[in-house]
Every structure is written in structure tokens, then in C-alpha cells.
């Protein structure tokens, strides 16, 4: 019997008095539901729900989109980072230089892979790791550097690779937010040994739960990652670690991607470029409304973009005065926001043993005080952007609603 899936229930769009959620993809799902339903029905009919043919089909589609030689589907962007670090050769106790301003998974992945995170400050105009700070952080225990591509732009990969080459370091990319971002035609995650993608629901390409992928052009890294995601197995047996002298048996885990997530992602991937363009339109509208407004320090569109690179807006991040006061006002008006990030990683309690102090990495600390993410997703209406901007203008002009 063929599987059938009901269409998502239609909901009435609320009007002027409704709130503006930080993220909502209900309209997207209604619009492309026939495609999603078709892929999901194939999974249900096949009866293999994890690590099956739909995952393999999505991996091939992702390779075509990114140009990667290998895309390895896994259960989350975080596990993709851990597998990438291990597959790229991280050894217990090795140091990995990471930016202090990023999601905590960047650093905890290093810990889970057996390494030690070393934090570096970010660039003056942008969000990426500062190559000069990377150079200053290198010790005789440094093995890798992990730049992070954040919000709407790539890290300075030319500068990072220059430092890495000078010190013999492996470059791995936390490109979890960077699907669609390219430098000189090369997709994010393929500018070093490998990178990752996250398909957390709010991401530019989002699943309906957790999912991720590892990207690489390195055959040995890809093969090792495939074994690590499946309890170290190649086929149905434990396998030797490729590319390493005196190979040992890999002790992997269970990091496989679910086929229903792959089905949703395969359907949404066909609409990704249109979604990226829609995000760009909304981001430009924000920029045009907020640029030069007293209290708004910087809008994303005014930050420099390096030659050959493109912007893909995952998060519209403004830098503002009175960030917490503005966030509270917007919340009171029913407008969702997010703080990226409340505290830099070098000052997080879980890394207190590393000995960092306030003031050590001032650019990251300052961005954590001023950055606020505004609603941005393809289903967002231009009128909703204007409502958000109107409320921001009222806040900084001192006017009541």
C-alpha cells in the first residue's frame, strides 16, 4: 500500500496587530508540500528510515550544488564538526585556534574530538577570525585553525590560509551557516581540508529537526568520516583508519542522518537559490530603513566584502546601542529577536580553566554587547520588516508606540 501524507493545515495569516516571529517557515511548507510529501512517501514505502537511499540521494544533490567531491550526511552540524576534526587528523591534546565570537559548538566540538580550543579575536570590520590574532595564538602544540563563516559572509580565508601555511597548520572550516557562500567560485567548506553544514530548522537550508553534513574534496577525510558516523564501520565491519600510518580500528559513534530529514532537505534544496535571493531582498530593506539611524552603529550591508566573495544572509545582524533595551522593547511589541552571542566563548564558564579574562579579546567582547539579530526568513513580508524598523526608530527617538 502506498503511503499518504496529509497536507499541512492552513492557518489564517494574522494582521497588523499580530507579532513578528523571529523565524517561521509555515508558508514555505504549504507552498512546497507536494514535493516534500512525494519524497517522504518514498521513504515510508522503502521502509529504511536512517542512513538509507534518500540520504545518499541528498548527498549527491548537495555535491552538485556545492561542487564538493564528497558530502557526508550526518545527524547535526555539531557532530559534523567533531567528525571533521577527527577525520582531518586531530590528536588528543592538540590545540585548535577558533574565534571567540561564535556559537559554542565550534569550541565544544574541539573538546569532544580530543583537542584544546585556543581563542582568538575577530577582525575589526566583520565577524570572522582575525588572521593576525591567529598568528599570535600559535604555539608548538597548535595543530589546526578553524575559521567560522558567520551570519552573511565568509571569514578571511586568504589571510587564515597564509598564516596556516606559514606554521604548517591544517585549516578546517566551521561553515555551518554558509550554504551558498563562495569565494572565487569555491563553496564554503572547500577552502581548506573540509567544512560542515548545519541544517537546523532556522538555517538557510533547514530541516524539520537536526541534521548536518561534512564537505570535503579529500578522499581519505571523507572515507574516515563515513566510518566515524556509523560506529567505525565500513559496510558491516569495523574498518582501519585510512591515510594514517599503523592504522587502528576506528571507534566511531552513531551520527547518521535520518532519511525523513534528507527527504525534506532534498525538496527544499531545489528552492534554495530563490530563498537566498528573498533573504537578500529583505536584508536590503532593513539596511535602507536603518542605515544612519541614531543608535544603530552598523548594518550588515555596509560591512566590506572581499573581492570574489558573495554574501548569503542567514542572519540579519545589526550592531546597536542599548542592545538589551531595544530587544526588550521589540519583545513587548511581539517582535522576536536573538542575541548572537550573549557572552564570548573565552569568558564562558565551561572554558574558565583556560585562564582568559575580560578584556583579553576586546572586539569579540564588544560585538557580544552590541549585536542583535532581527527577523529574517523567506516567508517574512516586507510590511513586517517595516514594522520592525518602525519600532526601532521609536526606541531611539524616545517616542511611545
From TrEMBL:
Residues 1-22 are annotated as: Disordered. This is DegT/DnrJ/EryC1/StrS family aminotransferase. It comes from Nocardiopsis changdeensis. The keyword Heme does not apply. Coiled coil: none annotated. SUPFAM superfamilies: PLP-dependent transferases. The lineage of its organism: Bacteria, Bacillati, Actinomycetota, Actinomycetes, Streptosporangiales. GO terms for molecular function: transaminase activity. Residues 1-12 have a biased composition (Polar residues). It holds the Pfam family DegT_DnrJ_EryC1. Keywords: Aminotransferase, Pyridoxal phosphate, Transferase. Belongs to the DegT/DnrJ/EryC1 family.
